[in-house]
Design brief:
It is a single chain. By secondary structure, the protein is α+β, with helices and mostly antiparallel strands. It contains five helices and eight strands; from the N terminus they run H-E-E-E-E-H-E-H-E-H-E-E-H. The protein has an eight-stranded mixed β-sheet.
Length: 195
C-alpha cells in the first residue's frame, strides 16, 4: 500500500511539474511577443482619408478619433491579402462587442473596370463580415489613401491609437490564423494603452 501511495505521489508530482512548465512556457511566449511588439512601436500621425464603403456611405478617419483603428489595405487579386482574411475575420469577431476598436478594410489598386462590384462579390462569396472602403483612383489616376500611407506592398496593416497616431505598420502575411489573431490582439492592447 505504501509503494502504491508513493507511486501516486510521484505521478502527481510529475503531473504538477509538467503543468507548471507548460504554464511558464505560455507566459514566456506571451512576454516575448509583448516585448517584440513594444520594440516595433512607432508614433506617426495617421493621414486622414474620406472614402466610401461598398454601399456608398462616406467614412472619414477623423470621425473615428478616440477609437483604436485597424486598417487593412488589400485587393481582390492579392493572394496574401486573401490568405490573411480568415485570421482577420477571427479578430473582427473577437472585437465585435468592443466599441473602442474599429476594423476598416481598404480595397485599393484594383485593376478591373468594376472594382466596387468585384470587392462586394468577393466579400459576399467568402462570407466575410468586413467594413470595406473603396480607395478608387481619383481624377489624377491616384489611389490617394494607399499613397498617403506610403504603402508599397499589400496586404498592409496599420494600427492607429485613440489619438490618431500610427502605432504599428506591417506588410504581408505568413503564419497561421491563431498566431495572427494573438499578434493583432496584442497590437490592439498596446494601442489602447498608448499615450
Amino acid at each position: 500500500m505504501k509503494s502504491f501511495l508513493r507511486l501516486c505521489l510521484l505521478a502527481f508530482s510529475c503531473l504538477f511539474a509538467c503543468i507548471s512548465v507548460s504554464a511558464q512556457t505560455a507566459i514566456n511566449k506571451a512576454d516575448s511577443l509583448h516585448n517584440k511588439l513594444l520594440s516595433e512601436m512607432i508614433a506617426l500621425p495617421a493621414p486622414n482619408f474620406t472614402l466610401k464603403d461598398l454601399d456608398g456611405n462616406v467614412v472619414s478617419l477623423k470621425d473615428l478619433k478616440g477609437k483604436v483603428i485597424v486598417l487593412d489595405f488589400w485587393s481582390t487579386w492579392c493572394v496574401p491579402c486573401k490568405k490573411s482574411f480568415p485570421a482577420m475575420q477571427l479578430a473582427v469577431n473577437a472585437y465585435k462587442n468592443d466599441p473602442g476598436v474599429k476594423f476598416l478594410f481598404i480595397h485599393t489598386w484594383e485593376t478591373t473596370k468594376t472594382p466596387v462590384e468585384d470587392a462586394k462579390n468577393y466579400i459576399a462569396k467568402s462570407d466575410f463580415n468586413f467594413q470595406v472602403l473603396m480607395d478608387l483612383k481619383n481624377e489624377a489616376g491616384r489611389n490617394a489613401a494607399v499613397e498617403d500611407y506610403g504603402v508599397s506592398a499589400i496586404p498592409a496593416k496599420f494600427v492607429i491609437d485613440k489619438a490618431g497616431k500610427i502605432i504599428f505598420k506591417l506588410t504581408g502575411f505568413t503564419g497561421n490564423d491563431a498566431d495572427a489573431l494573438e499578434e493583432i490582439s496584442e497590437r490592439i492592447t498596446l494601442a489602447k494603452n498608448h499615450n
